[in-house]
Amino acid sequence: MGICLEANAQTKAQVAGKVTSEEGEALPGVSVVVKNESVGTVTDSEGNFSLAVPQNTATLVFSFIGFETQEVPIANRTQLNVTLKVNAKSLDEVVVVGYGTQKKVNLTGSVAAISSEDLTVVPVANTTTALAGKLPGLIAVQPSGEPGRDNANLSIRGFGNALVVVDGIVGRDFSRLNPNEIESITILKDAASTAVYGVSGGNGVILVTTKKGTLGKPELGYSFNYGVQTVTKYPRFVNSAEYAELKNEASTNLGGPLIYTPEEIEKFKQGTDPSYPNFDYYDYFVRDYAPQMQQNLTVRGGSENIQYFFLLGQTKQESMWKGGNQDFATYNFRSNVDAKITKNLDVSVIFGARKEDRNNLVQDSYLMASWLQYSWPIFAPKTPDGKIASTNYGLTAYLDPELTGYVQDRRNVFEGSLSVNYKIPFVEGLSARLTAAHDLSFQDEKQWRKKYLTYAYNADTKTSSVVGSRETNRILLTDWKYAASRIQASLNYNRSFLERHNVAALLLYEENEDRATNFSASRQDYVVPIDQLFAGPDLNKSNSGGASDNGRQSVVGRVNYDFEGRYLFEYSFRYDGSAKFPVDKRWGFFSGVSGGWRISEEKFLRNKIAALNDLKLRASWGQSGSDNTGNFQFLTGYTYPARNYIMGDNVVSNGMLPTGVPNPDITWEKSTMYNVGLDMSLWNRLLELEADVFYRERGGLLTQRNLQLPSTFGASLPFENLNSDNTRGFEITLRHSHQIGELKYHIAPNVSFTRSKWDHVEQRPFTSQYDSWRNNTQYRWKNIYWGLKSVGQFQSQEDIMNSPIQDQQANATLRPGDIKYDDYNHDGIIDANDRQVIGRGQTPEIFYGLGLDLSWKKFSLNMTWQGASNFNVEQQHFLIQPFANGMNAYAYFMDRWHRADMTDPSSEWIPGKYPSTINDGAPNNKMFSSFWLKDATYLRMKFLGISYNLDVLKKFGLPSAQITLSGQNLLTFSELGPIDPESPSGRLSYYPQQKTYNLGVNIIF
Q1: Reported pTM
Q2: Which helix (H) or strand (E) covers residue 373, if one does?
Q3: Contacts of 7 (CB under 8 A, 6+ apart)
C-alpha cells in the first residue's frame, strides 16, 4: 500500500499563481479547475491560488461571473499569472424592442426582458403563468386553474390589458405557445418605448420572439414531463352532525324549535344508518390528483446560407372534477427558417400551428363550484338503488356525461409570415424590409344537454320513484372564424460616422385588417337523445350569427443617435388612422422622446472608480392614444333585429331600434407618460440595479353624461371624451451574481408599486355636503373600499344596549357575537352615513418577486417567489353567511358565538371568531364592513426546479441529458386561510388554482 501511495503522490504537481483583471486588480473567488476533472480551488482575497494537479494535466480553466472563461495550458509551469477579460457579451446584449432590436446598454426607455431559460424551468400549460414574479412592472395574476382557461391576467404597471406582439405581428395570442418555442419575452413599459405602437400600445406592450435556427450541425432535442395537479386551497364544508347542530342553532337563536333531535345528530356522527348519511361532497366532486403531461421534439441548426428551428409539442391536462372524459390538450408545431439568398437578400419564413381540444362537463367549472356549495352532507347523491336523488337539486348528476351531456371545444390556429430583407448596396447602412402575415383561427363548440330524472327512495318498499327532472334534450353548435392580415414595409438605416456618431433610423408603413364571423344553431326537445343537430325536431329550433370587420393604417418612424456611447437619444412616432372616428378626427399622431446619459463613460469617471462598471441615467416622455370603443358612434346606429312586426299576409319581419344619439366629436382617448430611470452595474456585474419612477395622465376617457332622460326619449346618450385620471409608481430590480469555487448563484429580487387617482369624473349633481364627501370620486384614489368600520363584536347584552342603534329596532335583534360598528358621525345611529374608507380594493398596489438560480457541479436549482400586497379580498355571500340561499356551510363557521345550551335562552354565550348562526343570516352581520374585508397580502413559491446532468449517458452518444424535479405553487403564505390569494373574488365560484409536481427529462442529441 505504501508503494501505491508513494506512486500516487509522485503523480501530483503544485501549481500556484495570481488572477487579476485587465486593470491589474486582484480577483478573489475565481474558480480554478482542472479541465475535464473534478479537481479545483478558488482564489483568495488577494487573487492568489495554489492547486495540486496530476502531472499529466494540460489545462486549467479559470471562470468568474462577469468575465470571460479562460483556458490556460500549464506547459510544465509551476507559476501561472492570469488576466481575465470582462465579458463583452454583457455589453453587447441585444434586447428586442418595437420593430427592431437595440443593445441593452444603449436603451433609453423602460424595458425588461427574460430569455427562454427562464420560461422552461417548470413545464407550464399556459405560458402567461410562467411570467409571474419575473419581470418588474408586469402584473401576472392567475384567477383560475381550469385546463384551457387558466390564462394569467397580464397588465403592465396596472394600466390594463397590454398589447401582445409575436414575431413582430400584433394581435397574436401567446398564452398557448409552447414555452420551448419562445426565445425571449420583452415588455415595453414607458410611452417612449411604446409610441411606435400608437393607439394599441397605451397600456404597454409584450413582445414575444420565437426561436430561430443557429449556425452548426443539426441538434435534436427531446423533453418529456409528467406531473400531477392538486388544489392549492379550498375551504372544507361542515359534516352532517355539524350541519345539524348549526341548523338547530339557526332556529333556536330566533326562538324556533330544534330541527334535529340529539338522537338524530348522534346517528349522523356514527354514519351507520343509511337514512342519516355523512356525505363529503368535496371528495365526491374533486379528485385528489389529476395528471398532466408535456413532451416536445425540436430540431435546430443551420449553415451560413440557411438556418432552421422546428418544434413538435404536446401538452395534456386532466380536470380536477371527477366524472367523465374531462381534459384539455394542445398540439404545437413551429417552423422558422431563415435563408440568405444572395449577399444582400435575406428571406425569413415563420409558421406556427396549434390545435386545442377541450372536453368538459355540460356545466361550466364556475357553476360546478357553485353546485358543490349547494350540496348538503345529510343527503347522499344517489338513492340506495343507484338512482339520482332529488335531494340537493339532483346537481351531482352533472358529473356523469353519459347521463347529462358534455361540451366539446375544438380550435385550430395557423399563423404565418414571410419577410424579405434587402441591403441596398449603393447606400451604406440602408436596408428595405417587407413583411406579409396572415393568421387564421377556426373554432367550433358542441354542447349536448340531456334531460335526466331525479328520484325519491321509499325505505319501506326499497324502491325509487320519479319525482322530477332537470334540463331538456338540447344541442347547441357554435362556429367562430377569424382572419387577420398584416402588411409592413420599412426602410432601416444604421451607420456610424467618425467612430463617434452612431445613427439608426426606421420608417415603416403598416396595414392591419381583421375579420371575424360567428354562427350558432340549436334544437331542443329531442324525442330520441341523439347528439346530432339533424336529429332534433323543427319546433323551437333557432339560429343566430354575427360578423365584424376592423382595419387600421399606420406610419411609424424612429430615430436613434448616440455620441461615443455616452449621450443617447431616441425619437419615435406613429400616425394612426381608425375607422371608429369621424373623418376629421380619424387620424392621431402619437410620439415619444427619450434620452440617456452613460455617466460611467465620462472621462471624470471612467476607470476612476474601480467598482463602477456602468452608470446610466434615463428619462422619457411620450403620448399614446386608444380607440377602445364601439364602431361608428359618430353615426346614428340601430340594433337589428330588435323587434318583430307583422306585415302584410301576416308575415313576421324583423324590426330595428336606435342604439343612441351619435357624437360627431368623438375621438381618441389620450395618455401622456413621464419616466425617469437609473441603471447601474458594480464590481463586474456582481451587483446590478435598475430603477424607474413613472407618472401617467390620461384625458378624454369615454363615458356618458350622468343625466336622467325621459323614457319616451327612445335612445341613450352618446359616449363623450369627458373623464381623466392619473397613475404613478416605481419599479426596482436588483441582480447579484457570484461564483464561489464550483458554486454559482444568481439572485434577482424586484418590487413594483402603482396607484391611480381620478382627476375628473362625470357625476350627477350632489344633494348635500355629506353626499359630495361620500360619493364624489373626483381627485380621489381609485381601488378603495367604502363601508362600515368594525370595532369588534358585542361581548354581552349590556354591551349591546349601551351601544349606538344599528338595527333600527333599538338593538332588539342583536345578540352577543354580532358585529359592532363605528359610529363615524357620532349621531348614535349606525347607518349609511357612517360609511368610511375601510381598506384597499381588490387590485394589489405592490407586487414583488424573487428569482434564485444555483448551480453546483452537476446540480442546479431554480426558484421563483412571487407575491402582492396593499389589497384586500371582500368575503361575500355564503362566505359570510351559513346556509345562504339554501347552501351548505363552511367548516370554519363552527368557530362561532353560541349558547352553552341552545335550548336554554338564559345560558351563557361561548365566544367564537364568527357571529352566531341564524336562518338566512342577520341583516346586521351581512352589512358590508371591515369585518369581512381580509388583508390579502401573500408570498408564493411560484416555481421550483431541481436538475441533475446525467454525464453517464455520454457513453451512449448523448452529449447532453438532464433530469428535473419541479413544481408550481408549492408554498403559499397568506392570512386568507382556505382562500387562494389569486382567486378572482370572495365568492369561491371558480375553478381552484392548482399546485403541480413534475418529473421530467431533457435529452439533446
Answers
A1: 0.87
A2: helix 365-373
A3: none
